[in-house]
Each structure stands twice: as C-alpha cells, then as structure tokens.
Amino acid sequence: MPYINVKITDEGVSNEQKQAIIRGCTELMVKVLNKNPATTFVVIEEVSTDNWGIGFDQVTELRKRASQT
C-alpha cells in the first residue's frame, strides 16, 4: 500500500495538473513495483513560496529577483 507525498509550491497549479500528478505517480508504482492502484495513495501538499527555501533564500525572494532580470 504505497503512500506518496508530493510537495509543490502554491503557484497556480491547476486541478488538471494535480490529476496528472496523481495519475503519473500511481502509474509509476504500478509499472515499477506492480502495486495495486486501488491501494496506492497520493497526497499533494501545496506549500507557500514563503515557506520553501533554496540555499539561503525563500522561493518568494528568488522569484522576485528572477523577474527583475
């Protein structure tokens, strides 16, 4: 019974994209580990870019800097 936790930033991911993530993760478990899709759980957590850091910076600040260049 796989449990897959996907964490992404909360930057406008559509419902269709989330469905594709769930489908893709489940298909991977079926293909690689021969798991039953009926008992494969996928949870998507959306994290604020203020709460996601890369290196020394918040993703919010990194996005601001990138848009200024």
TrEMBL record:
Active site as annotated: 2 (proton acceptor)
4-oxalocrotonate tautomerase-like domain span: 2-55
Top EC group: isomerase
Coiled coil location: none
Keyword Isomerase (UniProt): yes
Highest taxon, organism lineage: Bacteria
EC number: 5.3.2.-
Keyword Metal-binding: no
Keyword terms: Isomerase
Gene Ontology terms, MF aspect: isomerase activity
InterPro entries: 4-OT, 4-OT-like_dom, Tautomerase/MIF_sf
Family: Belongs to the 4-oxalocrotonate tautomerase family.
Name of this protein: Tautomerase
Source organism: Shewanella denitrificans (strain OS217 / ATCC BAA-1090 / DSM 15013)
